[in-house]
Amino acid sequence: MRSADKLRLRLRTLFLRPRVEAELAAELSFHLDQMTDENIAAGMSAREARQAALRSFGGLTQIQERCREMRGTRIVDELTQDLRYAVRTLRMSPAFTIIAALSLALGIGANTAIFSLIHALLLRPLPGVHAPEQLVALGDPARTGSLSQGNVRTDLFSYPLYEQMRDHSQSFSGLAASGRSNRLVVGTEGANPPGGTETARGRIVSGNYFSVLGVPAFRGRTFTAAEDRVPGADPVVVISHSYWTRRFAQDSGVVGRPITLNGSPFTVIGIAPPEFTGDVVGFPTDIWIPLMMQLQVTTGRPYLDRWDTSWLLLLGRLKPGVSLPRAKAEMDTLVARAVTTFAGSKISREIMPDPQAMRVQATPGAAGFSSLRRQFAQPLLILMIIVGLVLVVACANVANLLLERAMGRQKEIAVRLSVGAGRPRLIRQLLTESLLLSGLGGVLGIVFALWAGPALLRLAGGSSSVALDLRPDLPVLAFTAALALFTGIAFGLAPARRATRVELASTLKENARSVVGSGKGAGRWPVAKLLVVGQFALSLLLLTCAGLFVRTLQNLERLELGVDRDHILMLRVDPVAAGYTGDRLMAFPAHFLERMQAIPGASAVTYSENGIFSGTESASDVILEGVNSGKTRENGVNLAYDRVGPDYFRSLRVPILLGRDIGPLDRVGAPRVAVVNEALAKRYFPGVSPLGRHLTALGPPDVVYEIVGVTHDVRDHELRGAVPPRFYTALAQSSEFASAFNVEIRTPEPGALVKTAREAVQAYDPSLAVNDIHPLNTLIDDSISHERLIAQLSAVFGLIALVLASIGLYGVVSYTISRRVNEIGIRMALGAQRNDVLSMVLRETMLLALAGVAVGLLLAIAATGLVNSLLFGLSGHDPVTLAAATAILVVVALLAGAIPGARATRVNPTQALRYG
Amino acid sequence: MGKPNDLVQGTLDLLILKTISLEPMHGWAIAKRIEQTSDDVLRVQQGSLYPALHRLEQQAWITAAWGETETGRKAKVYSLTPDGRAQLEKELASWDRLSHAINLVARMA
To answer: Is A72 left (phi over 0), alpha (psi -120 to 50) or beta?
Structure first.
């Protein structure tokens, strides 16, 4: 009631102003009349009485003003006034307004774009999920597409382990699992896939997945616990709203329709709501498949009963009152108990972990899982700092422009002060102007960010199509608004305070300027000069960073890989998924190789299990003869390895340093051979030849190889760091088929061969899907996409800062000269030559620039330590980069000084002295 | 003459609330009543009275209505709201506490 009353009064005061004002006037005049009457009663004449009343009443206007103030609407009134006034002044100087608003838009827009990326990738709760803050992610959230075989793990979970955790957990009201699916080949009309190669992104999920996440069906139904019971029994899928739109044009008859996934029949039972894109951020799911149907989409690879195959990430919903640490502790206990229970029966001795050492990684699950975070978190944070600094430089520029304007408005301000405007009020009014500017910059910035966000995403994503929703939502808009407000105050406050500190008498005099510049105006220079010095310092820092990142990228791009990287086409097929088994599967590599070698334009073809820069790698514990052979199996060294095809190294143009390549005769039946890389040879056989030594890969079963060759080191998966010791065996000698199958084709122009190679695979067997086909360089480029992102963006932002700083310097120098025209005139009249004038201007310009550079160098040396971990092949204190950045700034400063300097030399002494 | 500044901040509120708690009256009458009741010790100046009235109205402690005086003139008449009565009780209590405290100190033996 009371607050409603208050509100009514406020609104009345605001919107019925004439009436309220009239009432106030009537009320006061009534009082005045009463006083007059009293005075008359006391014996005064009517006129005297009136005057006495007025005298004792005090200032009528002041009382009215104070009454208005009490009503609390004065601020609103004044704000409206200020705003109108600000709009008017800004419109009067469009050039200033445009330049200031654009530089702010650039700064704010860049910040908004980077922040919206950070928000979408790192912070935003999964859209479409009920109460995401209650979710806990179990496992390593980055391993969204991983599969780990050979031991029991807790960074990813095997299905049997998940089952134990789900059924015995007390902390969660529900525990859902999701795991990777291979690319799905989707057929929509019976068993006949039309188009053949249409692929979709699948995710294999538990029956309770949708209910734990609290995602209802948009059409049809989602999975239930019933789908979690019998392997292979429920061939049903839920499709995403976006896939429904893309593939089925929102056909409402889709629910109940049969489709095939990798050749197996399924039925669509439901459509997910539009906002729900799954649990993996950046890669929206098209099709959800029940866990029990894993074998049907990953033909030939049963995971469901294997404790040593970890491929699931878990999302649990905490029961009310249960904390994350408590849930984690319960999971640790549960895992240890489960492993102990099944030790010996389901979990063999070889893969049995130490139950007490198993720790479950539990993190807040609101933002879901993402493999992109680890790679991009640090670069994005550094970019956030960089764009923050660019905004500071932009603010300094606008502050300088405002200062300059304030000088031009001194007379106006002096007039306003002299007729009684309060200084705080004037400051507020000038601040309104700068806030209006920054608001304008903010709005333009959002527009800029709308365009820049997707562009950034493409830059970051490389050839993998990362999809993030970058439409600005409430947090992003709040961020931008806060930024605009903050910048408005940051660049507006100092100039406003400065501008209102005028000496009325001298400013109001018509010709206040003294002969040698303006004594009064000089007070502004320290601020403006400091701003320019600061801009140069930050620009140097930004340019140095840009230089470091660009050189890092160059170093990575020029890095010697050890293979002929420019001429290799990589393609991956999965014969197991295509239904190959037994002898047919074992014969596949040789047959397929033969067909691929017949592709016109392919100069050499080979294959390998893990490929190059494919993201999959194998490792095994190994005993090396004469190195650790006397020791027990626990002392085996863990080494990376690959299983490769014949003439692998020759085909990739990797030099064999000792011995021989893996050859076509290394088949089943022949003695098993291995080739080791130089790093392995140097580390374990220093000074001796490893040829003829034996290498035992610890099983089960143990396999013994004879080392027959040493090859030059190859960077197989990682550009940074030392090449790890690695060995290569012949896939043709293995009793087990590869977990992946990559083909390397050497050809002069890899990009041009993509279509031909794809057709050749289709011709070989139409059911064999080409999962990935890329020139090797594309894969390598993708592996350094975050380095590319940060290099290109920091270069762009460094240049923007440079341009802003040079505009700032140019403005300050021009302004100084315009204030000193008569001083220059006197100097020239006294015999100074043009060169003297020019060198005087340049000297002063360079003094500012060099002061900035000096501060900047100190900053750079102090700050670049932060980015050391992102650099490659150079240190944060790289002298070449520092020197180059300094040189660029000096040249730019010379230019920024030379233009107004040249103008100064054209000063006509007579005119300057007469009219100055 | 007692200047308005002599009134402790907030005391004017107390005086106004108390005065119109007896009967609704307009600004002039409030000032007069305070003067008379205090034997001319307390004089309320217009420069303080009207802003205070508007502030109290804004707080919804008093409410204003246009009425007629005995002489038939229109005047803005203020009366106490229930909230204002509660506020008056509070201010009275705190005044008592304050004056008691000051007395204790002032009359310290």
So the answer is: left
Distance CA A372, CA A379 (A): 11
Token readout for A724 is 């790890």
DSSP run (H or E) holding B92 = helix B82-106
What band does B9 get if pLDDT is binned at 50, 70 and 90?
low
| Range A240-261 burial, b when 16+ CB lie within 10 A, else e | bbbbbeebbeeeeebbeeebbb
Q: Could you read off the pLDDT of A521-577 as tens digits, one per residue?
A: 444 457 788 888 999 999 999 999 999 999 999 998 888 888 888 899 999 998 887
How does strand B74-80 pair with strand B25-26?
antiparallel
What letters, b where the CB count within 10 A reaches 16 and e where it falls short, cover A213-226? bbbebbbbebbeee
B26, B47, B60 ranked by CB distance to A58: nearest: B47
The total number of residues shown for chain B amounts to 109
Q: What is the pLDDT of residues A674-691, one digit of tens each?
A: 999 999 999 999 988 999
What does the DSSP assignment read for A43-101?
Answer: T--HHHHHHHHHHHH--HHHHHHHHHHHTT-HHHHHHHHHHHHHHHHHHH-HHHHHHHH
Which among A26, A63, A70 is the nearest to B58, CB-wise?
A: A70
In A188-286, beta strands by DSSP E: 199-200, 202-205, 219-220, 236-239, 258-261, 264-271
Contact B91, B13 (CB under 8 A): yes
- Please determine, for the modelled complex, whether the ipTM score is greater than 0.85: no
Helix (H) or strand (E) holding A848: helix A834-863
Place of tokens 């340019």: A543
Residues 31-90 of B with CB under 8 A from A: 45-47, 50-52, 54-55, 57-60, 66, 73-76, 83
Pairing of strands A135-138, A312-318: antiparallel
Q: What is the pLDDT of residues A15-48, one digit of tens each?
A: 777 788 888 888 888 888 888 888 888 888 888 8
pTM greater than 0.90: no
Q: Is residue A569 within 8 Å of A750, Cβ to Cβ?
A: yes
